[in-house]
Amino acid sequence: xxxxxxxNKVLLVDDDLDLLEQNKVLLESRGFTVITAExxxxxxETFKKELPDAAILDLIMExxxxxxxxxxRIKTHEHGKNIPVFILTSATYETGFKFSxxxxxEKEWIKCDDLLNKPIVTDExxxxxxxxxK
Amino acid sequence: xxxxxxxVLIVDDxxxxxxxxxxxxxxxxxxxxxxxxxxxxxxxxxxxxFDLAIIxxxxxxxxxxxxxxxxxxxRPHTICFIATAFASYDTAIEATRLGAYSYIPKPFSPEELLxxxxxxxxxxxxxxxxxxxxxxxxxxxxxxxxxxxxxxAIINTINNxxxxxxxxxxxxxxxxxxVRLFNxxxxxxxxxxxxxxxxxxxxxxxxxxxxxxxxxxxxxxxxKPNRELIVEAFFERITGEDGDLRGVVIAIRxxxxxxxxxxxxxxxxxxxxxxxxxxxxxxxxxxxxILDETVNITEEKEEEYQARSIIRLEGLLTLVxxxxxxxxxxLGTKQREIVELDLKEVINNTLVFLEFDLKKKGIDVNxxxxxxxxxxxxxxxxITRLFTNLLSNAIKYNKExxxxxxxxxxxxxxIKTQIIDSGIGLKPEEKDKLxxxxxxxxxxxxxxxxxxxxxxxxxxxxxxxxxxxxxxxxEFGKGTTxxxxxxxxx
Lengths: 134, 490
Prior knowledge:
The mean pLDDT of chain A is 86. Helices cover 46% and strands 18% of the residues of chain A. In chain A, helix 3 (40-50) packs parallel to helix 4. Chain A is α/β, with parallel strands linked by helices and 134 residues long. Chain A has a 5-stranded parallel beta sheet with strand order 2-1-3-4-5, sandwiched between helices. Chain B is of the alpha/beta class and 490 residues long. Chain B is built from 14 helices and 17 strands. In chain B, a hairpin with a 4-residue loop joins strand 6 and strand 7 (171-174). Chain B is elongated and about 145 Å long. The model of chain B has no long low-confidence stretch (mean pLDDT 88). Classes of the chains: A alpha/beta (134), B alpha/beta (490). The interface between A and B is medium-sized, with 21 and 25 residues.
């Protein structure tokens, strides 16, 4: 099955409306169905309503850790615990503050499946979804 | 003083002897003065310094020993001889005790006298030289102790720490600042200090004494966590005249403030970079989509993306201009033309400039201006900028069809301007950060309101430039009031 069919409904959460629009268009061009939200709070409401197949969350929104909080909520949710959740960030590049989710300890803290660097590259998302589906 | 010719005082009541001796000595190049009795002898012998004095023991008025005593009391370096025909062991001892150099029995031969005087004169010179040396030495010691205490006082009061450690690791010298900066406790001269010092310092000390060469080192250390105390330590070798290493001197400087400034600067740069990057990324993203042949978008969408790109680029331009303004203000290179300004006029002009935004949002403006002159001395551009930033915020963060009240009146030496909006207001935690660079209140109500996050920090800087004051009162959901105080022009 094609990856965009397997994870067809993607929830995109970003407070930069331009980036939200761009990522939506790019994912749609690859066959995904995209639903959007503009804040962590709105993202959580949308998630519960839509129960998407995957979620891509910006890290810094209304709070500096909005993305972490939302991913934690999703990954501890009955439906959400099984879906891929990626956090979108350029924090490492900009602040030099390094974090990753490659070890189990880190995954205890940051309950997402992978990190995505800004600006978003559609192929990278596809690869990460492929990896997750294995 | 030692003169070339020895000066002699002869004290004798016997005129013949006095004059005879005088003549004899003058022939031998002595300068001679005489006194004919004890009283005169005391006067002459004490009022000026003679090299030598010959004092007759038996005189009708005052005893020779008394004269000797007085002269020695006032002129201790005058070499005194007691001359007498009545020599006795006791008087000799008494004379010596009182400070006589020697004893000349009467009658004496010229040779005998000259021999004695010569000996005495040599003694006198020796005495004076010793005295001089002693005085010089004392002066040097005083000087040295002054110098030493001065130096140690200087070293002790300087803010930089100084530690001197010999090559076996013993503390040879330290000052108060060193104790403070290295956070040391109970240190004394001679302590084996290495284990009390921060690890990095001891290690570097060992490196320094174990390697030859003249290389000096410095390290930066965080002594107290959270940047509370950061020091830089400079290591310098001390070598003897033979070139052998004697020890190491460590100079310690507190660089906490410098580090704090560095941190603030780095944070500012990284914030600026972030703020610049965001609109650039947005524009870049739109352009990529437009040019990407694999992404199909409608013509309408394409136009919308171009329009959004322009908005983001305009925002970027405003940001860059704000940054330039801030930098000019901070560097003090801003050119100001200070003129008399009527605040009523400035605010009215600003409102005209903002008329479009006011109408678009349906904001109702109420003005309550004091009737008198509301004049300040300032640069027109800056004050216009100040009120443009505040009034445009009062519009941007206002409700649809909201209110904007502007009150200007005099308050002591200031003109007080109140800008009151009926907008979204501020949470207490937002209020505290309001004037920080790049701070923007982020909540559902501020979504979609554009801004650089620099407007109010510029406002604050302008107000402070003119020795004014700005206050903010706000209630979340109800509105915000800014009170601006600018010094009145009398």
